[in-house]
């Protein structure tokens, strides 16, 4: 059983070492799944696809235990229950900034060093 949380096309920049950067969009689908075997637990499932490239498929299944490792490594300040909504908020902000000449998110990404 899964609850759909987010399903939209999101603009991205495809970066490659041997080619020029390419702008495009991918479909981001996010759902909260309940896994029942061997124990009942929740997993955040994030799936990235591209209609123009049928071989483009990335899937992440993030359980609560894996999230704790991610939280520690990345210094996240939210718990597993709040993470999906924060992730969606970030994607929505990217969509809102998409058509601006200087989007807020691109400045934040490039200033990381």
From TrEMBL:
Spindle assembly abnormal protein 6 N-terminal domain boundaries: 5-100
- Origin: domain of life: Eukaryota
Q: Where in the cell is it found?
A: Cytoplasm, Cytoskeleton, Microtubule organizing center, Centrosome
Q: What is its main location?
A: cytoplasm
Cell cycle in keyword set: yes
Q: Which UniProt keywords apply?
A: Cell cycle, Coiled coil, Cytoplasm, Cytoskeleton
Tell me which Pfam families the record gives.
Answer: SAS-6_N (PF16531)
What this protein is called in its record is SAS6-like protein
Organism equals Mya arenaria (Soft-shell clam)
Organism phylogeny: Eukaryota, Metazoa, Spiralia, Lophotrochozoa, Mollusca
């Amino acid at each position: 059983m899964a609850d759909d949380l987010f399903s939209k096309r999101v603009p991205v920049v495809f970066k490659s070492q041997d080619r020029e950067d390419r702008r495009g969009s991918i479909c981001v689908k996010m759902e909260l799944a309940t896994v029942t075997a061997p124990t009942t637990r929740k997993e955040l499932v994030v799936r990235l696809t591209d209609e123009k490239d049928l071989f483009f498929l990335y899937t992440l299944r993030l359980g609560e235990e894996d999230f704790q490792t991610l939280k520690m490594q990345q210094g996240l300040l939210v718990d597993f229950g709040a993470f999906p909504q924060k992730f969606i908020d970030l994607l929505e902000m990217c969509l809102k900034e998409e058509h601006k000449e200087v989007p807020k998110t691109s400045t934040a990404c490039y200033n990381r060093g």
